[in-house]
Amino acid sequence: MFSISTRRALLASAAVLSLTLAGQASAQTRQPTAAQAYDLKRQDLGQALTAVAQASGREVIVPSDLVAGKAAPALKGRFTADQAFERLLANTGLVLIPVGDKLVLRRALAAAPGEQTAGDPEVLSELVVTGTRIRGAAPVGAAPIVLSREDLAKSGYATVAQLIQATPQNFGGGPSETTPGLSIRNGADANLGNGSGVNLRGLGPSSTLVLFNGVRPALGGVSGTFADLSLVPSLAVERVEILADGASALYGSDAVAGVVNIVPRRNFDGAETAARIGLANGFNEYSLGQIFGRRWSSGHAVLAYEHYHRDNLAASDRDYATEDLRPFGGLDYRTSYGAPGTIVAGGRSFGIPAGQNGRALTAGQLSADRPNLGDVWASSDLLPRQSRDAVYAGASQDFGADLTLFGDLMWAQRDFERRSIAEVRTSSVTSANPFYVDPIGGGQPIQVRYNYTGDFGPMTNSGSVRALNGVVGATYRLKAWSATASAGYGRQTEATRTDNQINTYRLGLALADTNPVTAYNLFGDPGSTSKATIDKVRGFSSSRGRAAVWFVAAKADGPLFSLPAGVARLAVGAERREEEYQKSSISDLAAAAPRSIPNAYPPGRTVSAAYAELRVPLLGEGQTPLRRLDLSLAGRVERYDQWGVTRNPKVGLDWRPIKGLVLRGAYGTSFHAPSFENQIIGIGTVGYQPITIPDPKSPTGMSTVLGLLGNTTNLGPERAKTFTIGAEARPTWLPGLHATATYYKIRYRDRIANPNSAAFDVLPNRDVYASLINEHPTLAEVESYYASPYLLNFDNIPASAVQIILDLRVQNLSVVDQDGVDFALDYGADLGPGRLSASLSGSYTLGIEQRFTPTAPKIDVLGSVGSPVPLRLRGQLGWSQGSIAITAAVNFTDDYRNQTVSPAQHVDAWTTTDLQLSYQFRNGSGPLSGVRAALSVTNLFDKDPPFAVLRTPTTVIGFNPDNASPEGRLVSLQVAKAW
User: Fold this and answer.
1) What share of the chain is helix, strand, coil (3-state, %, to 5)?
2) Residues 872, 849: Cα–Cα separation, whole Å
3) What is residue 518's three-state secondary structure?
4) Which of 118, 134, 386, 421 has the fewest CB atoms lying closer than 10 Å?
5) pTM of the entire structure?
6) Cα–Cα distance, 552 to 61 (Å, whole number)
7) Are 790 and 687 in contact (CB under 8 A)?
């Protein structure tokens, strides 16, 4: 729309469209630039400001709502940058003020006699950037990635979650819509509400701190595992700031891989209506939204509402969503759980013939050694149906020049429904069953493997997620200092229910029933059993989780003392936070009647914290040939009533050796506190499950193991050391170019991890998991676990068949070392009558070395299933002329190794292309005035995910949801009108 949008700009908390332009300016040492010749025609104010900024080498941040509908006068002659800006802004009520190295456009507030206006350079800006607690200052040592509202509009994505997850620094493994039922890695198994999280660096969603306008929201998932981005209304979001660096020194727990701060459109003025419809093979989606905003001389208010709906995506609509992977060069992984079923007796399998009801079946009709195969994906979904309503409201009011009261509130409800993979089971049938058939003679009990979907219907998971987050506060200004006190509350509830399950207790009774009218019949086609019996056996399970957080906080910042290079500034603060998680469940799966399972989680915990941040200008321009050097020192002390005290410092350094170049570096420590679920020992988290998994040492290639599941005692916090060093360039010889490159290194120890997520990797990598493996357990040892009420023996494997015991319980694993390089290029230039813009952002991971136990060797898991790929890229190329704009984007995900199968499989890289054509109705007063329409196509060439044989403990499928989406090509039309 306007100039070059930045991806590394240091933005403020006002609603802005960032414009990154060549050059830099210091708030303390800003000097008038040399006069230049300008010959600008009358045009949009935003475009005129962009042209002057580019020509002068100044960096300007322009709120889109401030310049909407405003025109700039023609500008012809020689002017300094300040003179040019002054002429363009004359009579607009707008001013440019310095914030860090940038100029920020704001309204000029009317001043009482003797007061200063907001445009006075001596007035401290209230704008705060993620990565620092000091107002009006840029973070030192690291700069956030910024995804602007324009980026969201150009992407063609429907939600903010999709935009964040497309960022190269994010790894798709973990809680998302595509991973339920397919992964238990990175907390994916905790995603009962089908939400969407963020997983920077692939270090887990709990290692990324998510904020909404600088405040922690209540978390979602079991035990509050992740922040559910799917609840955020896109229409209410101005930008997203992503600090891909450890930041516990400022923000506390979870900020190991980084911080994601979602900034709302708090300064929006006017009204905007937005609608979107998207069409894809297998599902459709649409959204409707409205936002109102009003500013007055002493305050503002904004109210936004958005409704979003998407259909479910059936697995049958994607060829690769199957257990029969032969068409793709794989194997047939379907099992003998068909419908009709398979009888197992005397070590042999006998297929039950189709086309009959089991009432006259004889042994001679069975197909010996030819089991009936079934595919659990046949009646399931890859993506759930989602329907979300969300509201955001924000307001502030000044009382005189010194006091401001403010508040924010966000409410959302999301309903979902998903067909899970089929319910299959091995059932024992005796001769008492009236339909019993004995394929080998002798009248002994037989085993029948059967897919119950045809009887019960698809097993369906449905529910709702509700979230409420609010904060109120006051800011008091005393000369150059500012103090803020705030309090807030957040709550997220997730209610889920799974229907069409099997109650094993009542099934056992029905199989033992001697009455052919009421007995369960496993010997014919689906539906051979009476509806009354099926309904009697039908079970369900439900759960309700509730996460809540209360907090109070106080903060003050301002100038501390003056140095020759400038003013040292200090921020100090204190916080107190109370967190809790409760969960209750009802199970109608294993008893005559539904059974309630009460909350097993510990009571809430209290967190107290204090922090300080000092920014010191060590050298100023003109003092030495070194130009400018800034130092930042930060530290936070945090006390958990269960874990004790953690202390996390951070130091950052910015050096500007020449104009247009910034060299920066930072070092600090971070931590993540254990979740509530990590503290439970007993029902709900403990399980002992026998299963057959790949084993290279076994003559058959498979071994039967007993997995010990659940938590270990005495879990402690995860701790990390983070280091970054990078450069940012805006060369004066090429206006419009902005380039950044950052090397990072994270040493993460005492990680809380679930080895069960890598159960299929354990035996092929015995040296890595040696301390988790009991190669030769005694039968008595195995039988002791079999006697436990926590035994999960879905396949009726006898204790005598167990060869190995694996300790797959959650525990503090030793060390993860990860390093890599983030980089970005942005360029924009006027070419003839139009404007060209280009950008490339990427993350190249050099290595991820893990030591799973203190005595195990390190292994590099980079580029394997469950870990990030080496390289992710997103590039964009755009052209705009007048009201028309076209944008093309390319997304690249590197190839990797699939170690869940033997031999390991090479998975190809995946490249998709997006395209958007938009038109802005700029002039006139008719109904189309202020309308922007965009036709977008994501995955333009409908590229399927790369073929991958993804194995889980319960099924196999032909793609990996961590690194690819099953959505396919999606065509959408977006229309927004400003009123």
Assistant:
1) 10, 45, 40
2) 19
3) coil
4) 118
5) 0.82
6) 32
7) yes
